[in-house]
Design goal:
- The structure is a single chain.
- By secondary structure, the chain is of the alpha/beta class.
- It folds into two domains: about 90 residues, Leucine Dehydrogenase, chain A, domain 1 (Rossmann fold); about 120 residues, 3-Layer(aba) Sandwich (Rossmann fold), CATH 3.40.50.
- The chain is built from ten helices and eleven strands.
- The strands form three sheets. The protein has a six-stranded parallel β-sheet. A three-stranded parallel β-sheet has the order 3-2-4, sandwiched between helices. A two-stranded antiparallel sheet has the order 9-10.
- α1 packs parallel to α10.
- It is globular and about 50 Å long.
- Bound molecules: NADP nicotinamide-adenine-dinucleotide phosphate.
- NADP nicotinamide-adenine-dinucleotide phosphate (NAP) binds next to α10.
- NADP nicotinamide-adenine-dinucleotide phosphate binds next to α10.
Length: about 280
């Protein structure tokens, strides 16, 4: 039976460590790390995610501000909010909750966030730095997966990592990070042929497609490490990309859903905000 990679537990451990770190910073710099989250519209899933993020900030003693903007906010007004946050010395991290309404150009807007405050690591400057192995703000979900692999001492060097999904926020940065870990990386996507066969060659299989329970036992080699990123709502239930029950007797390690990559994403958002704080506040003191 596969060992569970408990993301909730590791996230708790990270929060405890960060709480101590934040207390120390407040003492020496008299300023709390402060994350600003911009939420456009009333998407219930986005509202829930934003609340989780706010709660996590408070758990470690950080400040959190949510800026709620109307569904039909103009691009000009949204940009002006971002510019205010960019120049506000009391704000250290800025996150634009995605998705945003279609009339707004998310690519353009994300790139207007000061790259030193880009806690999601989605802006071009951080994407480029990651691809060049330079110190970057790294997208939180892939970073959380790396933390999980490290916590469970999963060997990555020379291992074949197959990533299902090639998005800018999960698949591609995940591939960069696994290359940095000396894995041999294959990325699959919706046009990949024989995806089952390729997945079955993986020592580490990371599923980030958003297709509930797509990954069944036919995708998994005996002893593989299986990481589930997918989150889909089906008839009021939240399902991952991995059919956990079908796979758990084949995998060596597996993330649960919920309680796997989700809590780790938020823990890494806190880490990234503190990283921004350190660069912006401590370096200038
Ligand atoms: N756990 C977390 O904290 C967390 C964080 C972020 C996202 N998520 C979840 O992770 C999932 C992926 O998110 P995302 O933002 O990366 O999604 P996305 O932007 O929609 O990308 C999905 C990727 O999966 C590929 N894909 C779709 N159907 C496929 C199929 N049948 N076979 C193979 N590949 C297929 C797509 O291929 P093409 O490029 O060819 O279209 C695309 O590259 C979603 O369920 C999302 O909710 C979870």
């Amino acid at each position: 039976m596969a060992k569970i990679m408990d993301g909730s537990e590791l996230a708790k451990k990270i929060r405890s460590r960060l709480k101590v770190e934040v207390e120390k910073y407040i003492e020496t710099h008299e300023k709390k790390p402060h994350l600003a989250v911009i939420l456009v519209g009333n998407d219930p899933a986005s509202e829930t995610y934003v609340k989780f993020k706010e709660k996590a900030c408070h758990q470690v003693g950080m400040n959190s501000t949510i800026i709620k903007l109307d569904d039909n906010v103009s691009e000009e007004d949204l940009i002006s909010e971002i510019q205010k946050l960019n120049t506000n010395p009391d704000i250290h991290g800025i996150l634009l909750q995605l998705p945003i309404p279609k009339h707004l150009d998310s690519e353009k807007i994300i790139n207007l966030i000061d790259s030193n405050k880009d806690v999601d690591g989605f802006a071009n400057e951080n994407v480029a730095k990651l691809s060049k192995n330079q110190d970057a703000l790294v997208p939180c979900t892939p970073l959380g997966i790396i933390r999980l692999l490290e916590e469970y001492n999963i060997m990555t060097e020379g291992q074949h990592c197959v990533i299902l999904g090639r998005s800018q926020i999960v698949g591609k940065p995940m591939a960069q990070l696994m290359l940095q870990k000396n894995s041999t990386v294959t990325i699959c996507h919706s046009r990949t042929k024989n995806i089952e066969e390729i997945a079955k060659q993986a020592d580490i299989l990371i599923a980030a497609v958003g297709k509930p329970h797509m990954v069944n036992r036919h995708f998994v080699k005996k002893g593989a490490v299986v990481i589930d990123v997918g989150v889909s709502r089906v008839n009021g239930k939240i399902l991952g990309d991995v059919d956990f029950n079908d796979v758990e007797d084949i995998a060596s390690y597996i993330t649960p859903m919920p309680g796997g990559t989700g809590p780790m994403t938020i823990a890494c958002l806190l880490e990234n905000t503190i990283k921004c704080y350190k660069n912006l506040v401590i370096k200038n003191d």
